[in-house]
Design brief:
Length: 340
């Protein structure tokens, strides 16, 4: 497909279609919309009731006739209709606010995506009202969004920890040299916390509570001062509401196994990296992006385990969306980063 349609006057948008959040950027405007990847649907009519924050508030709280779901799982579409409705609603919001007609869209996808999954993403975005769809691999978009010069003949290593997948890629000369996609990321850490609290404290908590615990006191290496948090849930013995206090050391233990898997996939990627590029990475350091990059001391743990410097990108949550926008702005230079 030719890329000449990316003319200067066109209203092109970039989408980070994440498992946890959807971010929309407009060329020249930056991020114009950021919402959780959640949709609430009326089961009887099939009508969309809410998307984003409003729908997230409904998770685990809906009556029988309303279905609140996260239609993305492990970085790909798990519920096609739900994703399509969510995208349609999100694109309508963006298009209405900024007077965009049928936009051309660049969307970030996991590097391990299959052809079937790829077609599902394209189809969902086209049916949601896009004119053209182009795909960019998330680690490439994250690297561009983090300000790394991907077109240079120097190696860069990006670790993008999202909600559903952890993407690790070595990038050089505008292409991915070595990559690994692991379906262990933020959601898995939430699940670990749910299971830990259930096993240790006999308390049932929801995914929203688990996410709050992870954000507030989650850490990969013990913090200097132990932090605590009060958690409310349902006592599994009595079935009654109950609250307990958990601390950062407990949560470190809860997520230790999944964090270990993320560290291992980074090490495997480094082992497969050509020596010249390894030397570049040693000099520049490993770039951490995505929401998982915000877990306290994860950079420290990765540095200890790999022997390489590690830094967290500025605004790691926005890297993929910003990368999609930068690709739109400099399409001639970056055309080879798109999946053809």
């Amino acid at each position: 497909m030719k890329l000449k349609m990316f003319n200067l006057g066109s209203k092109d948008i970039g989408i980070d279609l994440g498992t946890a959040n959807v971010l929309v950027t407009l060329k020249g405007k930056g991020i114009i919309l950021k919402e959780p990847s959640v949709v609430a649907i009326d089961k009887r009519t099939g009508q969309i009731l809410a998307t984003g924050y409003e729908a997230k508030e409904m998770l685990g709280r809906t009556p029988d006739r309303i279905k609140a779901i996260r239609p993305m799982k492990d970085g790909v579409i798990a519920d096609f209709t739900g994703t399509q409705l969510m995208l349609k609603n999100i694109l309508q919001k963006a298009c209405k606010k900024y007077s965009i007609g049928k936009p051309r869209v660049v969307v970030g996808v996991p590097s391990g995506i299959t052809e079937v999954e790829e077609r599902a993403v394209e189809e969902a975005i086209l049916q949601a009202g896009a004119k053209e769809v182009y795909l960019i691999e998330e680690p490439m978009a994250a690297a561009i969004g983090a300000g790394l010069d991907v077109s240079e003949p120097n190696g860069s290593l990006v670790v993008d920890i999202g909600g559903g997948t952890t993407e690790v890629a070595v990038i050089s000369l505008g292409g991915i040299v070595v990559s690994n996609s692991l379906r262990v990321a933020g959601d898995e850490l939430d699940e670990d916390i749910i299971n830990y609290v259930k096993k240790e404290d006999n308390l049932a908590i929801g995914s929203t509570t688990a996410e709050q615990i992870k954000i507030q006191i989650g850490c990969a290496v013990p913090t200097v001062t132990k932090t605590e948090m009060e958690v409310k849930g349902r006592d599994l013995a009595t079935g009654l509401p109950k609250h307990i206090v958990v601390n950062s050391d407990q949560i470190k233990d809860a997520i230790k196994e999944s964090i270990g898997e993320i560290v291992d996939v980074v090490k495997v990627t480094l082992e497969r990296t050509p020596p010249e590029l390894s030397a570049d990475i040693m000099e520049k350091g490993i770039c951490l992006a995505g929401g998982g990059a915000l877990i306290k001391n994860l950079d420290q743990l990765l540095s200890e385990k790999t022997g390489m410097p590690v830094f967290v990108a500025e605004e790691p949550l926005d890297c993929v969306a910003k990368g999609a926008e930068k690709t739109l702005e400099d399409i001639e230079k970056l055309r080879n980063v798109l999946r053809k």
